[in-house]
Amino acid sequence: MRTLCGRLRLIPMRQLAYNTSFTYLNDLPVRKESTDVKRARLLYQSRKRGIKENDLILASFAAKFLNDFTEKQLEDYDFVINAPNNEWDLYNWIVGKESPPPNFQTNQILKKLQDHAQNSNEQRFTLPTL
After folding, report:
1. What is the pTM of this model?
2. Secondary structure of the chain as H, E, C letters
3. Which residues are within 8 A (CB) of 130 and not within 5 positions of it... i.e. 6 or more apart?
4. Who wins on pLDDT, 81 or 22?
């Protein structure tokens, strides 16, 4: 069984799916980390997703916005990219092909990601540099 290792406990990956028991930010594993460590982790997780489509969207989004996010916005972003366990679901929600589940629809970071993915002001062909 694959697990996500938090600093305090191990959580089976299947429990992190958006349609199982972990559906809200409070349900994600507790991590005791500083804001700088959280930003670095989220930047890395934004670049290494599993499908290049999400790598490109999330890495460019993180490079553009992550340093200005408040702690609450970082937690919301963490929830958006780490709660769903299917990368294609996340991609389809971001680009608007599918409607996100109700617990994601009020998330302002997801709305900001959707606006970013519209790509109205720039062309993105490569990941941003580190």
Report:
1. 0.71
2. CCEEECCCCEEEHHHHCCCCCCCCHHHCCCCCCCHHHHHHHHHHHHHCCCCHHHHHHHHHHHHHHHHHCCHHHHHHHHHHHHCCCCHHHHHHHHHCCCCCCHHHHCCHHHHHHHHHHCCCCCCCCCCCCC
3. none
4. 81
